[in-house]
Specification:
The complex is a heterodimer. Chain A is α+β, with helices and mostly antiparallel strands. Chain A contains 13 helices and 15 strands. In chain A, the strands form two sheets. A ten-stranded antiparallel sheet of chain A has the order 8-7-9-10-11-6-12-13-15-14. The longest helix of chain A has 18 residues. By secondary structure, chain B is an alpha+beta fold. Chain B contains seven helices and 17 strands. Classes of the chains: A alpha+beta, B alpha+beta.
């Protein structure tokens, strides 16, 4: 069987040019197929419909894909994701041919180039269908910030994080049940013995997910991203999980967080209605835009906090681990904590701050808003707006924020009287 | 100080409703290209603007291949244009002139400028050796054989040269986080710090649009910073569908009935005269200049067979719910709101079945998109009359 292209692939590309998810399935040589797809990725990056193929372009502009994911490995075959942007569909339709040529060049005898097939649950499944979740997010110490224009070093969490994560997720595995992994848009079962390696193997995919149990009552998941800021997020719960069970899940995550405390810059636990709260860009709306914030400013977004996790906090939570940077900002606030706040010293200058009882943080608990108000007041020096977080970043790197430069004049030749 | 020219002040939402629901209008004659290519001023070598046709960027038509009123729909470009328009409206009082060149704090299609004279066939760059132990990042430039992909990423929307937004088909949402992180990484290497924008998320942004075939779509900001999704209404998650679908029905009757009294700040925005009555329809941004009582008159069409509830979201985290009993007429309701702070808010009216809980932070199934009540788009013809005081 030679290298073939799924006959339906062209239609899928035409229907979804902004999210082309292409996979090489059943390759006779899996490693060679992955390498061939990486080279084809370079070919795809050079696709160009020409400057006249989209509105508002000038000679010299190109019109090609706006994003190409890394080649994501999976047991069912390597995957690449392409955002075609405004590229003419006729140009995007050449992608399978490019991949096919590179596969043949690499000596791959058999393969099917197709749209990714759903093999198992992914982050999308988890966020959409997972209900009632206790979520622990651990932040790896951010790498030293470098001046603008230089390549930012990447954060790297210690291997013990993944071992702890796998051990905790396995707690939801029932007899004869599978452990599911996902990298990008593809989900697949993994042997328990391979679970830790799954995280390492997924570095090039940018993120990795592991989950076990069922959506109803004993769902557990671990999600991590690999970047110049790195987080590991653990979530447990399920739609029919009782309040008592959620509290028990939270307690198990507190224990895990304490064990990893010396290697985190910041950590927090919350209980939310949905596993969507595991998303690394998730934010509750009332935190994003409190009434006191000025126009156009919001709370520091999750990626800003991840970048500055040694200094800032995302929100006031029922449970958090803070580091020396936070303590420097909080001054003596923790030496005489307010009522309902407990402070505990952990290893390596980490401090655990608990507000109220864990059950107060259940989504519908009458004490939740009270506890959250206490936590936000207590941690106010570490709660920045987006613009304040930005200013802190530039202060740390000792540079001026180029976005504050004076706006340029309108383009030459612009006639406001002809503006319609 | 900004001033607006008189005679160009149909409200944001009047234009939005007209344009989005009657998306098949022929393109206006004589429009000039307002959106010329420009360089990204703060970056070392980035370029911005373009790729979106003037007519769809001005919301005169939904975005189609070729830019005219006919042709194949480009839903992503349409959703991108709407988001740009609303972000612009939050900062500037836009009239029919739309987004113009003076508008320098909002950019779209931001990416590296192609090297002059580069021949794609010979531009294969050598991949520098990866430092030992250094993993690939989200953009993963490494490829075997010394072949490195071209640096041709482009960001959908950049706000104030500092924050970015990715507009994505809801079906592809799982890829957005890595995509945004890739852009941040690449922009940083170009000398720019661009992190995610949270404003549309904070405002519970949701806007419906209708394509040339009459299909209703929804574009909205979920609880993920920097994400904006779009989808056919039939597959839109229920809470977003309520936010998108409700306003269509409510606005049909509310447009000319809702009033707001806006207190002016002397010397600014001269068309805002104390006590002047202006229409505001949902979803609309609303400027609250000071914490003073504001009057609203809202009308909702009754249904003969069932009771409904009209929920008015003030955009500041508060809302009011009005009972709309079964009947064949139009229920008029008047209420006053005192805002606790100044600011700009997206306000919306949502007409729902009783017992439907609106929970903007939850993805719980509330009501199926299929049962979300949608207005006949033609109703908007009558609803888009411009306030005579403009």
């Amino acid at each position: 069987m030679p290298v073939r292209v799924d006959p339906g692939l062209g239609r899928r590309i035409r229907e979804n040019p902004g999210g082309i998810a292409l996979q090489v399935q059943g390759a006779s040589d899996a490693d060679a197929a992955a390498d061939a797809l990486r080279i084809a990725r370079s070919d795809i990056s050079r696709l160009d419909g020409g400057w006249e193929s989209a509105a508002g372009l000038s000679p010299g502009d190109s019109n090609g894909p706006t994003y190409l994911s890394p080649v994501v490995p999976s047991p069912t075959g390597p995957v690449i994701y392409v955002d075609g942007g405004s590229t003419p569909v006729s140009v995007l339709e050449t992608i399978p041919g490019l991949v096919s040529r590179r596969l043949r060049d690499a000596g791959v005898q058999e393969a099917l180039i197709a749209w990714t097939s759903d093999q198992g649950p992914t982050t999308q499944t988890l966020y959409d269908e997972g209900r009632r979740a206790v979520v622990l997010r651990l932040y790896a110490p951010p790498p030293p910030l470098v001046p603008l224009g230089q390549r930012q070093p990447l954060a790297r969490a210690p291997a013990t994080w993944y071992e702890e994560a796998v051990g905790w997720v396995r707690g939801a595995l029932g007899e004869d049940e599978l452990l599911w992994a996902a990298a990008g848009p593809v989900g697949y079962p993994v042997p328990v013995s391979d679970a830790v390696k799954h995280f390492e193997r997924s570095r090039r995919a940018g993120s990795a997910l592991l989950m076990a149990g069922d959506m109803a009552s004993r769902l557990r998941a671990a999600d991590t991203s690999f970047a110049w800021h790195q987080t590991l997020t653990l979530g447990g719960g399920g739609a029919q999980t009782s309040d008592e069970d959620l509290v028990a899940v939270a307690e198990s995550l507190v224990e895990l967080a304490r064990r990893l405390a010396p290697s985190v810059s910041y950590a927090h636990i919350d209980i939310q209605q949905s596993f969507h709260a595991m998303s690394r860009s998730y934010m509750v709306v009332d935190r994003l835009r409190p009434p006191q914030y000025p126009d156009f400013d919001t709370a520091a977004t999750p990626d800003q906090v991840q970048l500055l996790s040694a200094d800032l906090v995302q929100d006031g939570f029922g449970y958090q681990i803070l580091g020396p940077g936070h303590l420097g900002r909080l001054g003596d606030r923790l030496s005489r904590p307010p009522e309902d706040v407990r402070v505990r010293e952990l290893e390596r200058d980490r401090i655990e701050v608990t507000v109220g009882e864990i059950e107060w943080w259940l989504p519908d608990h009458p004490q939740r808003s009270h506890a959250q108000a206490i936590a936000r007041r207590l941690l106010a020096p570490c709660l920045h707006t987006s613009s304040e977080a930005r200013a802190l970043y530039f202060k740390k790197i000792g540079q001026e924020d180029p976005s504050l430069m004076t706006s340029p004049a309108p383009p030459k030749g612009y006639d406001p009287d002809r503006s319609g | 100080m900004r001033t607006r020219r008189r005679g160009r002040c149909p409200t944001l939402i009047a234009a939005l409703a007209f344009s989005l629901v009657l998306g098949g209008l022929p393109p206006a004659e004589g429009l000039v290209n307002l959106y010329r290519r420009k360089d990204f001023p703060a970056g070392q070598s980035l370029r911005t603007w373009g790729y979106l046709h003037d007519h769809c960027l001005q919301l005169a038509v939904v975005c189609n291949v070729g830019g005219g009123a006919d042709g194949v729909l480009r839903p992503e470009a349409t959703a991108q244009s709407i988001a740009i328009w609303v972000l612009a409206a939050l900062r500037f009082d836009l009239g029919t002139s739309g987004v113009g060149p003076g508008f320098t704090t909002l950019d779209w299609e931001v990416g590296p400028r192609r090297a002059s004279g580069t021949n794609p066939d010979t531009a294969l760059a050598t991949n520098p050796a990866e430092p030992p132990g250094e993993p690939a990042d989200q953009c993963d430039p490494a490829a075997p054989g010394g072949v490195e992909p071209e640096d041709k990423w482009r960001i959908d929307i950049v706000v104030e040269r500092a924050r970015h937004i990715e507009v994505k088909n809801y079906a592809n949402r799982s890829m957005v986080a890595n995509q945004l992180l890739c852009y941040t990484t690449r922009a940083l290497e170009k000398g720019l710090l661009i992190t995610t924008d949270g404003q549309l998320n904070a405002l519970l942004y949701a806007v419906p649009f209708v394509d040339n075939l009459g299909n209703v779509w929804c574009t909205w900001a979920p609880s993920d910073a920097g994400h904006v999704y779009f989808a056919p209404m039939a597959v839109t998650p229920s809470d977003a569908a309520v936010r998108c679908g409700g306003p269509v029905l409510a606005a049909a009757a509310v447009t000319q009935k809702m009033k707001e009294k806006v207190e002016a700040i002397p010397g600014m925005d001269s068309e805002y005269v104390k006590g002047k009555v202006r229409p505001a329809v949902t979803p609309a941004y609303r400027r609250i200049f000071r914490a003073a009582p504001t009057d609203y008159v809202v009308s909702a069409p009754q249904r003969p067979d069932r009771r409904q509830e009209l929920r008015f979201d003030f955009g500041d985290g508060t809302s009011t719910t009005i009972n709309v009993p079964a009947g064949v007429g139009v229920l008029n309701s008047t209420f006053t709101k005192s805002f606790g702070s100044v600011g700009r808010f997206i306000q919306r009216a949502t007409l729902t079945e009783p017992n439907v809980v609106l929970s903007p932070q939850s993805e719980e199934p509330l009501q199926s998109a299929q049962t979300a009540q949608m207005a006949d788009p033609l109703v908007f013809e009558a609803a888009t009359d411009v306030d005579p005081t403009c």
